């Protein structure tokens, strides 16, 4: 399993991570499946992302609508892709749609069976045990989230867009005192690519745990992954 977690993607600072991710995907093929967080009738973001990936020699091959997919044949097409991209958007709605469509467990199984899963913002949050930290974007408390269980592919929680509000770090520090999970927090332009024996950090994400924050350390993340 390889997971790529972006805070954002359409900015120049992400180019080093983009190039590395493209090389990993191209070693298996060039087709990427796309799962949007919500309805996208005009496919505006899909077409924008398609052009983005084309610049790296990758083809966004399949738009997979969680509300309207036709059955096993389309699921088979999705899971035959070289990688799957989970978009940004409303994290809670995305999780609800994955659950209601029956795709949450299927996607988890596919990823664990040597899949490459790419997530931006909400899509990256979903790869972790819980979407609790998403509550901060609407002024809520992560501790109040009761039904946030997500894909649980990684042994930490993920918080994107750390640079958007100076209050986010203080809120994450408080939350870290009540959750057993470490939190990886990224500013836009930062991210991580993780897999078996693979820990690549782009920028200077923070690891937040027990009320303290420090720049993410490759060795510590590798240790977390090995114990997961």
TrEMBL record:
Belongs to the peptidase S51 family. It holds the Pfam family Peptidase_S51. The keyword Transferase applies. SUPFAM superfamilies: Class I glutamine amidotransferase-like. GO terms for molecular function: serine-type peptidase activity; transferase activity. One of its GO terms (biological process) is proteolysis. The keyword Transferase applies. InterPro entries: Class_I_gatase-like, Peptidase_S51. It comes from Rhizobium sophorae. Gene3D superfamilies: 3.40.50.880. Keywords: Glutamine amidotransferase, Hydrolase, Protease, Serine protease, Transferase. This is Type 1 glutamine amidotransferase-like domain-containing protein.
């Amino acid at each position: 399993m390889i997971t790529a977690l972006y805070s954002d993607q359409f900015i120049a600072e992400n180019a080093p991570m983009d190039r590395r991710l493209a090389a990993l995907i191209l070693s298996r093929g060039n087709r990427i499946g796309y799962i949007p967080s919500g309805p996208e009738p005009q496919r505006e973001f899909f077409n924008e992302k398609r052009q983005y990936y084309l610049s790296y020699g990758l083809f966004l091959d399949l738009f997979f609508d969680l509300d309207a997919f036709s059955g096993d044949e389309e699921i088979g097409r999705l899971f035959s892709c070289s990688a799957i991209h989970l978009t940004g958007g409303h994290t809670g709605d995305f999780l609800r749609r994955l659950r209601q469509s029956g795709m949450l467990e299927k996607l988890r199984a596919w990823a664990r069976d040597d899949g490459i899963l790419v997530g931006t913002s909400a899509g990256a949050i979903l790869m972790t045990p819980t979407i609790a930290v998403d509550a901060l974007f609407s002024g809520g408390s992560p501790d109040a989230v009761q039904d946030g269980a997500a894909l649980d592919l990684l042994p930490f929680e993920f918080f994107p867009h750390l640079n958007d509000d100076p209050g986010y770090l203080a809120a994450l520090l408080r939350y870290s005192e009540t959750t057993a999970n470490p939190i990886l927090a990224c500013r836009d332009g930062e991210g991580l690519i993780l897999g078996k024996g693979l820990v690549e950090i782009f920028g200077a994400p923070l690891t937040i745990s027990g009320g303290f924050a420090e720049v993410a350390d490759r060795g510590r993340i590798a240790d977390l992954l090995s114990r997961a």
